[in-house]
Amino acid sequence: MKDIPNIFGSMVFNDNVMRERLPENTYTALKKCIAEGKHLELDVANVVAGAMMNWAIEKGATHFTHWFQPMTGITAEKHDSFISPNEGGGIIMEFSGKALVKGEPDASSFPSGGLRATFEARGYTAWDPTSYAFIKDGSLCIPTAFCSYSGEALDKKTPLLRSMEAIDKQALRILRLFGNSSAKRVITTVGPEQEYFLIDNAVYEQRPDLMNCGRTLFGARPPKGQELEDHYFGSIKPRVSEFMKELDEELWKLGILSKTKHNEVAPAQHELAPVFATTNIATDHNQLTMEFMKIVAKRHGLVCLLHEKPFAAVNGSGKHNNWSISTDTGVNLLEPGETPYENAQFLLFLTAVIKAVDDYQDLLRVSAASAGNDHRLGANEAPPAIVSMFLGDELSDILEAIETGVGYIGKKKIQMEIGASVLPHFPKDTTDRNRTSPFAFTGNKFEFRMIGSAFSVSGPNIILNTIVSEELSQFADELEKGKDFKSDLTALIKRTIKGHKRIIFNGNNYTDEWIKEAEKRGLLNLKSTIDALPTFIEKKNIDLFTKHKVFSKTEMHSRYEILLENYCKTIHIEALTMLDMTKKNILPSCFAYQQELVRLALDKKALARSLNSSTEEKMLEKISALSGCLYAKIEKLETDILGIREHEQILDKATYYKEAIIADMAALRGVTDELETLSAKKFWPYPTYADILYSVK
Ligand code: ADP
Ligand code: MG
Q1: Helices 485-500 and 340-359 sit at what angle, rounded to 10 degrees?
Q2: Is residue 352 part of a domain?
Q3: 139 and 199 share a domain?
Q4: What is the CATH number of the domain that holds 667?
Q5: Nearest-angstrom CA–CA distance, 501 and 202
Q6: The pairing of beta strand 123-127 with beta strand 139-148
Q7: What is the pLDDT of residue 338?
Q8: Which of 261, 322, 464 to mutate to test ligand 1, by most ligand atoms within 8 A of the CB atom?
Q9: Residue 557 belongs to a domain
Q10: Residue 559 lies inside a defined structural domain of this protein
Q11: How much is the average pLDDT of 241-250?
Q12: 571 alpha carbon – ligand 2 mean position (Å)
C-alpha cells in the first residue's frame, strides 16, 4: 500500500515546510502577510525565495514559473531556470525575492478585451501568498495574479481575491452586530464536483472535431446510449481505475484533497470531488485537477474530455459548485445552529443569499454562460436557464412561519420567533433530494449546479461572493443604524423573505409548467449566452462590482468583450471543422459508396438481364439525394461564414453566429447523421458514437 500521508502535499511548499525551513522571524512575517493580505518586504521575500529554491531543488526542480490564470480559462506559465552564470564560467543556482513576488510576462498575446489598446502591452504577475507554491513537472510554480501595468486585472484570480475581501468585510460587520468579536476573518469555501469523459486515444485521433473543438460535431445516435443508466455508480473498469488511482496520487502530491470518484450517468462519464477548501485555493486546485486529468489520461492511452457536451443525445458534463461561508475559527455560517442566537444569525445569512440570488439572477446566469454550456442548460439533464433556489420543504415551511408568524411543519403547528426559537432539526439527506434545481441548499452549504465542466470556478465564485457581500452590506447598514437589534432583525428577515420568496422553488425544474410559473413570478429566463452576457454590463451590475471594488467599469467591459469573442471564436472553429470534415472525407466517402453501388448494379445487368438491381438503385437514389442535400448545406454554411464580415460590433457578430451559423451547423449535421446511418461501415470515415463511447474496454 502507498504511504498516502507521506505522499500528500509532498510537492507543496506548505505551512509545515515553511515552519521547518524558514527562520522564525521570516515565518512569522510571512504568516502575517498571508493572514492580512499585505505585501511582503523584500528582505523577507529574499529569505523565503532562497528556502523555496533549496526545497525545490531537493525535489528535483530546475526551473521556476509564475503560474497564473489569464482569461483563456486555462493556466499559463513561463519557465526560467534557477541557473545564473558565475565568474569562473560555471553557474550558481539563484532565486531572488524579487523574482518570487513579481514577474513580467509579455501580456500582449493574452485576451484583454480592449484593455491592450488603452494601456501598455506589458503585464505583471504578483505572488498570491495565500496559495502555496508547488512543484509540477520539474518547475517550482508560484501562484500569481496577473494584471496590466496600470493595475487592471487580466486574469481570474485578482477579482476573486477582491471578492473574498469584500465578503470578509461585510460578513464581519454582521458578526460584530451579533456580538462576535473573536472572528478575525470570514472566508468562503468551495468544493467543486468535476464531471468528465474518458475515451481511447486511438478513436480520439481519428476525430478532427474532438481534436479541434473538444466535442463531436457529427454522430448518429448509438443503438445503446445511456437509456439503461447501467453505467451510473457502476463498477469502474480496470483501465479507468488505473487512471483514477494515478490521478489521485498526482493530486495528493499537490495537496489537493481528491476524495470521491465514481461513474456518472452517461457511458464513459465519470466524476471527481475533492474535500472543500478556501475558495481561491479550491479554484487553483480545480484548475490543476483539470490539467492533471488530461495529463494522466494521456499516460494511459486515454483522452479526458472536459467539454460540456462532447456527445449529442448523451448527458453532458457539469461542475457543481458547493459553496459556503465560514469564519477563520471554522464556524460554518450557513449551518443551522443549536441555539436561538445561532439560528438568528443563520437565518440572516440565509436570507442574504436568497435576496442575492433573486436580485442577481442575471449575474449567476452569466457566470454559467458559454458556447459549450449552451448545449446543456435548459436541456433535461442540467438545470434550466432559469435561476431559482431549492430550500427543501422543511426550511421553506420555517421561512413561511417566520414571515406569517405561524406555520406548519408536516402537521405540527410551529411558531417561529427569531432570536427566541430553535430551528427544528432537518436531516441533511432530505435537503438534497432535488437534483433539478440550479441552486440548492444542501444542509449547510449551497450547491450551484449550472456551471459547465470546462469552466474555471473563479467566475461563478466572484459573482457569488460579490452579490452576497452586497446584501450583507445592505443588512449591516440597516441594522447598525437601528435601535433595537432583535426587533430590527426580525423585521428585516420577514421583509426579505416576503420580498424575495419568488426565487424559491422546490419542485421539478425540468417541467414546462415551471417555465410558465417562473414567467408569472417575473423570473428571468436568459436562454442562451447571447441573451445572458449583455446583462453583465447593465448599470445595476456595474454599480455592484465597482462599489465592492471587485471590477472597475473598464474591467467589466473588457471581460464582456472577451466572453463574446470566445463565443464567436468557438463557433467559428466548429463551423470550419465541419466544413473540413464534410468536404475532405464525408462527401467523398458518400461518393465512393455510390460508385460501388453503381458498379454492382451495372455488373449485375451486364451479367444477366434477369438479375435484380432494384435494392442497389433504391439505396443509390437515397444516398445520392442526401449527398446533394449535404452539398447544399455546405454551400449555405460557406456563404453565411462570408457574411460574418458584415458584423463589426461584437454583440452583433455573436448574435449572427448564434442565429445564422449555429442553425446552418445543425442543418448540416442532420443530413450527415442520416447519411451515417445509411452508409456501409467500411465507407464511413470516422469512428461512430458507439465506437467512441465504448472505446475504453
Ligand atoms: P453530492 O452533491 O454528490 O451529494 P457531497 O455531499 O459529497 O456530494 O459533497 C459535495 C461537495 O461539497 C464536496 O466537495 C464537499 O467537500 C463539499 N462541501 C461540503 N461542505 C462544504 C462547505 N461547507 N463549503 C463548501 N463545500 C462543501
Ligand atoms: Mg452534487
Answers
A1: 40
A2: yes
A3: no
A4: 1.20.120.1560
A5: 52
A6: antiparallel
A7: 80
A8: 322
A9: no
A10: no
A11: 96
A12: 30
- The CATH number for 108's domain is 3.10.20.70
Say whether both 616 and 489 belong to one domain. Answer: no
By C-alpha distance, which of 276, 391, 410, 274 is closest to 332?
A: 276
Q: Which of 500, 520, 551 is the last residue of a domain?
A: 551
Same domain, 243 and 365: yes
- With a 6 Å cutoff on the Cβ, whether 27 touches ligand 1 is no
Q: Which bound ligand lies closest to the C-alpha atom of 281?
A: 1
Q: How many whole angstroms separate alpha carbon 12 and alpha carbon 34?
A: 16
Q: Which of 53-57, 125-129, 279-283 is predicted least confidently?
A: 125-129
pLDDT in tens, 357-397: 999 999 999 999 999 999 999 777 888 999 999 998 888 98
Residues 634 and 521 in one domain: no
Cβ neighbours around 230 below 10 Å, total = 12
Task: Give the Å distance between the CA of 434 and the centre of ligand 2.
Answer: 10
Nearest to 500 by CA among 521, 516, 485: 521
User: Cα(320) to centroid of ligand 2, in Å?
Assistant: 6
Assess whether 507 and 609 both reside in one domain. no
Are residues 573 and 522 part of one domain?
no
Residues spanned by the domain of 593: 567-693
C-beta 193 within 6 A of ligand 1: yes
Contacts of 243 (CB under 8 A, 6+ apart): 198, 296, 297, 300, 302
Model pLDDT, residue 3: 87
Confidence of residue 680 (pLDDT cuts 50, 70, 90): very high
Ligand 1 midpoint to CA 191 (Å): 5
For residues 482-489, average pLDDT: 92
Work out the angle at residue 313's Cα, subtended by the Cα atoms of residues 307 and 318, and round it to the nearest 5 degrees: 35
pLDDT band at 558 (very low <50, low <70, confident <90, very high): very high
Ligand 1 nearest atom to the CA of residue 326, by list position: 23
For ligand 1, the distance from its centroid to the CA atom of residue 654, given in whole angstroms, is: 36
How much is the pLDDT for 120? Answer: 59
Give the number of C-alpha atoms closer than 13 A to the C-alpha of residue 281, restricted to the C-beta side.
Answer: 21
Confidence at 428, pLDDT banded by 50, 70, 90: low
Strand partners, 303: 199
Assess whether pLDDT exceeds 70 at residue 119.
Answer: no
Mutate to test the pocket of ligand 1, among 164, 167, 193, 449 (most ligand atoms within 8 A of CB): 193
Nearest of 575, 199, 509 to residue 371 by alpha carbon: 575
3-state SS, residue 325:
strand
Shortest-distance ligand to the CA of residue 442: 1
Nearest CA to ligand 1 atom 19: 276
Sign of CA dihedral 333, 543, 389, 654: negative
Q: 95 pLDDT exceeds 90?
A: yes
Which bound ligand lies closest to the C-alpha atom of 444?
Answer: 1
Of the residues 489, 520, 551, the one at which a domain ends: 551
Q: Are residues 386 and 491 part of one domain?
A: yes
Query: How many structural domains are present in the chain?
Result: 3
Q: Phi and psi dihedrals of 143, rounded to 5? A: -65, 125
CB 322 within 8 Å of CB 332: no
Q: List b or e across 513-523, with b for residues whose CB sees 16 or more CB atoms inside 10 angstroms.
A: ebbebbeeeeb
pTM: 0.95
